[in-house]
Amino acid sequence: MHIFYYVVALCSWSVLGKTLTASEETLSINSSRGRPILWGPYRPNVYFGMRARTPDSPLIGLMWAPLHDGDIVDSDLRHTCEQADHMRGYGWTEYDVRHGGMQTLHDAENGLDMETSLVMPERDEQRGSWAARIKVSPAAGTDKAINSTIILYIGLGTPHLTPPSALNCEVSSGIVRCVGSTPRIGDFQLSMSRVGVGSSVDVWGSSVSDDNVWQAKATFLDNRRAKTDDGPPNKNIYFLEATSEGESEFDIVFSSGSVQNTLNSIDLDREMRLARSSFSSRFDALYRPQSPFSDTAFAGCSKALLSNLLGGLGYFYGDSRVDAPRSLDNGGTTTGFWKAAKGTKVLHKSHVLSSSPSELFSFVPSRPFFPRGFLWDEGFHLLLVLKWDLDLAIEVLVSWIDLIDENGWIAREQILGAEARSKVPPEFQIQHSQHANPPTLFLAVGAICEILSANGRSYHGHDSKYLKDPETGIDFIRKIYPLMERQYTWFRRTQAGNMNYTRPYSPREGYRWRGRTPGNTFASGLDDYPRAEPPHPGELHVDALSWVGAMADSLGRVAAFLDDGSASVGFAKERKEIVSTIDALHWSAKANTFCDASVDDDNNHVFTCHKGCVSLFPFMLGLMVVNDSRLDTILSLLQDPNHLWSPHGIRSLSRMDPYYGTDEDYWRSPIWVNINYLLVKQLLILVSTPGPYSGRARHLYNDLRRNIVTTVYDSWQETGFAWEQYNAETGAGQRTQHFTGWTALVVDMMAMPDLERNETIFRVATSDQFMPPHHLWLAIAILILIFTFRKRLPRLIRR
Ligand SMILES: *[C@@H]1O[C@H](CO)[C@@H](O)[C@H](O)[C@H]1NC(C)=O
Ligand SMILES: *[C@@H]1O[C@H](CO)[C@@H](O)[C@H](O)[C@H]1NC(C)=O
Ligand SMILES: *[C@@H]1O[C@H](CO)[C@@H](O)[C@H](O)[C@H]1NC(C)=O
Ligand SMILES: *[C@@H]1O[C@H](CO)[C@@H](O)[C@H](O)[C@H]1NC(C)=O
Ligand SMILES: *[C@@H]1O[C@H](CO)[C@@H](O)[C@H](O)[C@H]1NC(C)=O
């Protein structure tokens, strides 16, 4: 009931004079206040930052710098993840949201290596507590003596919320102790102490306005020379400074609520061992890489990618910038509609509303560059996470679904609060209430229904209360069903294409992404992928229609799961109609592929063909039957090196297209892992279902799986990072660094079966259906038993 609790808490604060409203219709997931995932490194934008999932949580973060003559150079101080810091790799090597894990950071420019280990004991009596060990050492390979300082800060203050809260820190006998309290967390304490010798700790405080607490680095740099013990009264941020010569370690212990841990009550080494072994065994059961990736180096890469996806989980709270309704003609019904929208990129202030604060628990695509929630990405993140930790995936899903407004709209980018906005240029901060985004959450909901319907038979993740008690699962799906349906209706209403032009066969529906500008279709998620130019109100987009089909498909599964027979039949009918509409409106016999459409000067339906990922959407989203004869050309398009095939994965646009590699070249050639993932999955389905193309699909599946995994792996080995996209000519990772969002989907692809060696057709939907390791262990155990008791066996049998 935590969300309900917030609503009550927020409302009561608003009575105290602060204006705060929260949606009446929030979903509630029943979990207690001390739930194990209350605390975490939920500030993924900083190298190491802890907070709880409540608006009034203390903010804790780490900074560090080398010391030169006892002082630091401002530009050496590390805090938020920045590509410009030129780190030689950083991130979690093994991390689980429920237990913690280990992060390594290679700060090459400063000549320092760091390690942050984090443990969150799961035992009830220690809920709400965690402990971390920060280790700093001269970078491997440098023998130069180096002094350094690490600064841990703890701050309190949330804009719009000024509940009574208190914080105080003091140092005594080499240990800094802080105590404080906030309404939601209750009393808490934090301590920091050194583990070895050759180091010292100190503390000083400062006072900043509520909305500046997150700017701890600036506060530190501005005030560090003036620091005095008696500083300002009512300090709400403290800096715990530890200087060390050479290598040293510091322990941080945090406890809250009724738990009053002393420094030693969490055995960090033991907890760390438990966390690691639990991570490894779950990984082996679920995501162990299959041939040809059986080498342990692939497992290391896969573990790191999964850990960084999980370690990119963030909690966000704050207001967002939304356009006032009808401030734009981007919904455009007239020719040249986009001209009206032009120049309104930075909207006049009076057109922008600040929404009431909301909260979001979300994975982020990239800690340095996109440290916030993205709708298009989140469904992909959840596809990996829901197999690992179903209940966590559901908490995150619910957090997103709570953001669906009364019309059914959900903003594509969640930029909540000043800290999140600080990373986004003003023209991209505003969310438009007429603009959609690929509804990927529906893919995750479909997959969750599949696990729940199978009663978890092929599920190897963390224990799930939804599987333990099926009623809970049904209850959850029943709660999200109307909201998903509301979004489906909103999408079909607001993104409807104009069917008044002369269309073939006058089908009922066709769709058009709103918010188009020349050269861009942001809402589609495929930004600069070529479409009709100039934008026209008569456009129809094949990917938009395919997404509607995918939504109908997912809602059909939801309805079937809930035994809602008539709804399930209804959605199946809608899906079927959409499949025929895709044929009627978007199949170009001339181009021999699926294409966008528009209208010509005489208002007649014409195709806008640019072969590439847009042409693949009906296939990628599972809307083609395995014996559809057009699969022949789809497979040829994929296989042809002159079009989409490359040794590094499937290109986003055909090499033959005039736009290939032009301008910004964002979606005009590079290889994207999410697209390749959908393709690999669909190919596996083709292979596993008897049909005319299963043989051909097998080769394609094997080659594509190997190529895309190898591309990500090689680049990771070379650069220490996963990337946003990969160069179609060289395979090199490019654009955003540390992109461990959907690029982490290679974790699942590594674990998919290798069909190279075995020509038998398996009936597999996913890698889950292979012999799960616990069966293997059982088999080994039985063999050992037989071996041990082999002498007695004959007697037992004779008797
Ligand atoms: C929440 O869960 C607790 C314990 O699992 C139970 O006692 C309580 O009744 C539940 N509350 C609701 C509203 O379901
Ligand atoms: C490190 O600090 C110690 C003590 O302040 C000092 O004696 C030593 O010279 C420093 N070393 C370097 C490399 O700066
Ligand atoms: C299509 O034509 C109908 C009937 O004339 C009209 O009501 C509707 O608004 C038109 N739709 C669009 C998108 O122009
Ligand atoms: C595909 O298979 C289904 C059933 O197996 C059949 O009804 C249909 O006619 C087939 N379509 C084609 C194009 O072969
Ligand atoms: C292929 O798999 C099938 C079914 O699992 C098995 O019976 C067969 O022996 C395998 N063949 C080879 C060459 O491994």
Mind explaining what this structure looks like?
The chain has 799 residues and is of the alpha+beta class. Among the domains are: 42-286, Beta-galactosidase, Chain A, domain 5; 610-768, Glycosyltransferase (Alpha/alpha barrel), CATH 1.50.10. The chain contains 20 helices and 26 strands. An 8-stranded antiparallel β-sheet has the order 4-5-6-7-14-11-10-9. The chain has a 6-stranded antiparallel β-sheet with strand order 1-2-3-8-13-12, with helices on one face. Helix 11 packs antiparallel against helix 12 and helix 12 packs antiparallel against helix 13. The radius of gyration is 27 Å and the shape is globular. The termini are far apart. It binds 2-acetamido-2-deoxy-beta-D-glucopyranose (5 copies). The site of one 2-acetamido-2-deoxy-beta-D-glucopyranose (NAG) has 2 residues, from loops. Its EC number is 3.2.1.106. This is Processing alpha glucosidase I.
Note the main sheet. 8 strands, antiparallel
Estimate the global geometry from the Cα principal axes.
globular
Q: What integer is the average pLDDT?
A: 87
The unreliable regions are: 1-34, 343-347, 760-771
**Structural class of the secondary structure composition?**
alpha+beta
Considering the protein shown, what is the CATH homologous superfamily of one domain? Answer: Glycosyl hydrolase family 63, N-terminal domain
User: What is the CATH architecture assignment of one domain?
Assistant: Distorted Sandwich
Number of helices: 20
* Fraction of helical residues: 25-40%
Main sheet: strand order: 4-5-6-7-14-11-10-9
Rg: 27 Å
Strand content: 15-25%
